[in-house]
Amino acid sequence: MKESLKDYLFIFVGVFLVALSLEYFFIPNNIAAGGLTGLAIVINHYIPAISTGPLVFIMDLFLFVIGFIFLGKNFGVKTIVSSFSLAGMMTFIESFLEPKAITNDLMLAAIFGTLITAIGMAIVFNANASTGGTDTIAKILNKFFHIDIGKSLLAVDFIVTLLGAITFGINIGLYGLLSVIINGIAIDKVIEGFHVCKEVTIISKKSDEIGKFIMEELERGCTFLKGVGGFTGKDTFVLYAVLGRSEFIKLKQHISKVDPNAFITVGEVHEVMGEGFKNIQ
Fold first, then answer.
1. How far apart are alpha carbons 74 and 40 in whole angstroms?
2. 40 CA to centre of own chain
3. pLDDT given at position 106
4. Structural contact between residues 92 and 16, judged by C-beta atoms closer than 8 angstroms
5. Residue 213 has what DSSP assignment?
6. Separation between Cα atoms, residue 20 and residue 108, nearest integer Å
7. Residue 116 confidence (pLDDT)
8. Mean pLDDT highest for which of 86-100, 177-191, 265-279?
């Protein structure tokens, strides 16, 4: 229950960031940076009586059904919450706050709008949800074909940028394409950052004590590998563990006390699956 509430809190935060970037960077500058929101910007140009918020909601309903079928009930429930939230936030901002472009410089609008959008969408994806629309298609491609979410978005959003170029001109269309490209790369990088762990190998005379600290104090598993010292020719143990960043800091502090001469190598891993981490799916 606590984990579920945490996911929904992250979803609202992520959606809020996406809504801000759309209403204050993209929509006022007619930058159709892919997705249903980009398509809504194009449609709104031809049918100004319907604002982008309601347009996004209507188109989301169709793709939501597809996502519900292919991605399961849990994903569907979270996605409908995020979709309603995004459409609702956009409609509220358009109705009561009269949003205006923070900057009319298309380059600045494209860059900062895209970075804020990427952070927001990555937060939503990390909670196993989507802001709806083409995000849902990207999630389906990621699940069944193991294509990075960012690259999937790049593929499915490309056609929207072409429509934007046809509607608003080649210059604005190219800025939309630039936003899509940056968005795809940035989302993958932000998602990777959520899951980065420290891969640690330790050679120490106090390996038993260090291993006990990892298992009992950090509540993580570790593995002892048999080795032979190249210089001494003596049998030794190599301790291997994967830890979170805060856990690694605690381990390093402990090792500095029990064996300051320990040999440690540290690497970053961007995805860890198995007991104590996320499920293998």
1. 27
2. 23
3. 87
4. no
5. I
6. 15
7. 92
8. 86-100
Q: Structural domain boundaries of the chain? A: 2-194, 196-269
CATH number for the domain whose boundaries are 196-269? 3.30.70.120
pTM of the model: 0.67
Residue 176 burial (C-beta neighbours within 10 Å; 0-12, 13-18, 19+)? buried
Helix then strand then coil, in percent of the chain rounded to 5, is 70, 10, 20
Q: Which residue has the tokens 């795809």?
A: 184
Least confident of 19-28, 69-78, 246-255: 69-78
The residue behind tokens 């891969």 is 199
Report CA-CA distances (Å) from 194 to 47, 123, 151, 168, 219: 40, 9, 18, 37, 20
**H or E segment to which residue 236 belongs:** strand 235-243
Measured distance CA(194)–CA(271) in Å, rounded:
9
Q: How far apart are CA 11 and CA 3, in angstroms?
A: 12
pLDDT for 157: 77
Helix (H) or strand (E) holding 82: helix 52-92
- Residue 24 banded pLDDT, cuts 50, 70, 90: very high
β pairing state of 197-203 and 235-243: antiparallel
